[in-house]
PepSY domain-containing protein
Amino acid sequence: MKTEVLLRSIGKINDELIADAESEANTKRKPGWAKLGIMAACLALVLCTGIAANAIRSNATAGTFTMDVNPSVEYTIAKSGIVKNVRCLNSDAENALSDVALGKQSVETALTRTVAAYEACGYMENGEATVLISFDSRLDANAELKASLSAKIRKALEQTDAVGTLVFHSELTENAEVAKIAEEFHVSLGRADWILTAANKTGLPTDEVSRMSLDELLKFQEVSGISSVSVSKFISLEEAKKIALKDAKLDELAQKIVFTREELSRNQGNPCYLLEFYTGTNQYFYQIDAKSGSIIYAGKFITLSEAKKIALDDAGCKDKVSFTEETLVSGGIKTPYYRLVFADAKTQWTYRIDAVLGNVLEKQQKEIVTTDFISLEEAKKIALKDAGLDEATQKIVFTREELNRNQGKPCYLLEFYTGTNQYHYQIDAKTGSIIYAGKFITLADAKKIALDDAGCKDKVSFTEETLVSGGIKTPYYRLVFADAKTQWTYRIDAVLGNVLEKQQKEIVTTDFISLEEAKQIALKDAGLDDATQKIVFTREELSRNSGKPCYILEFYTAKKQYSYKVDAKDGSIMEAYHFILLADAKKIALDDAGVSEKVTFTEETLVAGGIKSPYYYFAFESASARWTYKIDAVLGVIMDKTCDKIIPSAPEFIGLEKAKQIALDDAGLDETAQKIVFTREELSRNSGKPCYILEFYTDKCAYSYKVDAVSGDIIGKKTDWFSRQESETVPETSQNSDSKQRTDD
């Protein structure tokens, strides 16, 4: 037992000694291994931190770019080139992309998915969409990343086969107005910048311009501010023209061929070139497929002059006639024809002449009944009496004396001037009532006012002298003139002679072609010869504001209006348009509306300036309805129209004469004791509270009144003294005019 205990004790001692020895050995070895472990841990920490930092840097935001089609979307790009996230700028984009994963994708994948979603929703059809890409200032400043992104964007969009034109917008400087437009219409800053530019150039409100397509907006932009890339593979315009001429068996070297239309139409299901041209014997119309070069449509017609001769010979006209309509109606119909309307002093004819064979398809003849009309002399006397003029005591020169038969209500159009004023009148040809009357200062006075204000001492040349009236609230003269160093643009109130607006800019001299050279280039391109026909230039302006200086020319003949931009340096044609006349466009609208009563035009605007389909915009009204029309300015077809019935107000109105007397009594004036000239007498029905708007003046003061049409209360008034700086203004409620305008409005 003792032996067993002893042995256990010895074993215990040995075990303890061994354990102690091992512990001591371990204690001696510990410092070296600890250092090595700490170093390894630090190295691992550094590596992990570096990897994490690199990942953070790669995922940091490098900038954003936006893509506009109609939907607008913004992509946030990481420095690694990956799309971090996207932001839809409008509801169209939200609807199309709500279920599409675009974040944490490559740019190519994100764009491909975006385009596929747009195609599914119908925003990108026919493979001819225009796409606007706008980079923010951060990406724009990073040339390397911007170039890489641009290449990726172009490659991705090319592979979709959905894009026809890709446009990269230049860097945007900070502009509060652009930012406001972007926020209001939910578009990118790039598109907002385009909207502002187009609005400034057309004079249209931004809400109307915002509805334009990218194709339309693109044509208003400065060439220096964009980089446009054609993604589609189209044949060139010259190739299309050669295809058409070959099919028509024509040779430009052997005969004179004049092209009147050269247009790439992208709206069709199949993009095509629209070509119109004529020779000495025929007119031609072609549609050429822009991709394959195949002929979609080909038409060969007799010339207009030949069609007119056929109609005149058939009618047996011996007296002098005037044509009021000369229209080629084709557009793919079974039997294209010319519609001709003409008349002599006793008879009016309407003809439809087969445009291919020259046969008479239809004709109508009616006698002109003139017994119910007042004579021209009676109309002139009515106008002169209203203007307070007497031919026996002063010189009066009539520049226009015309009986207008095309309107729903025939009227005499009279224009005349004295030594101090110009006058415009429309006199009802049946009743002799005054439809419209306008009294303006003379052009010479307006020019003198502008020159005096500009302080010009050197010789100047006027490039524009235009009276803008036609029913606008404040008729004015638009004058553009320049000396050798400076160009001025003025708007002078055509009634009061006040300076409404002026601009002045220095002229940077360079080697430009002359104005006459530019005019000859335009006339040659239009196929016109001023030696054989009357050509009237209404605008001859050297535009220096553009990135590329150019001459802006507008002129018309008896048949058409023309608008040209000619490069001021090399003489190349930058833009060319041939339009139907304003009078013809108005007649198309009135005929379509079927108006049988008197109407008043409140707006007559040609909207062109580079848009795809230039058009005339008309707003006119009768006592019972109000119409708006968009008439294609080239083809004469109706693009859009609206008609709203005017519901007369239930209360009885006090009448114009009573309203005038209320205003005169308030002003302390007596028509029997002094000369008072009314320049505006208008019943405004658009407002919630109908009122009479009256403007008149004496030799000392001009007055403006608004009189409640029901109660006769004075809503607002204003006086402007001619002899001293004194005015009185009473707050007035905003009114929108909706009635016929008798005088300067």
Q: What stands out?
A: The chain has 16 helices and 36 strands. Confidence is low (pLDDT under 50) at residues 1-14, 724-745. The radius of gyration is 38 Å. The CA atoms of residues 230 and 241 lie 20 Å apart.
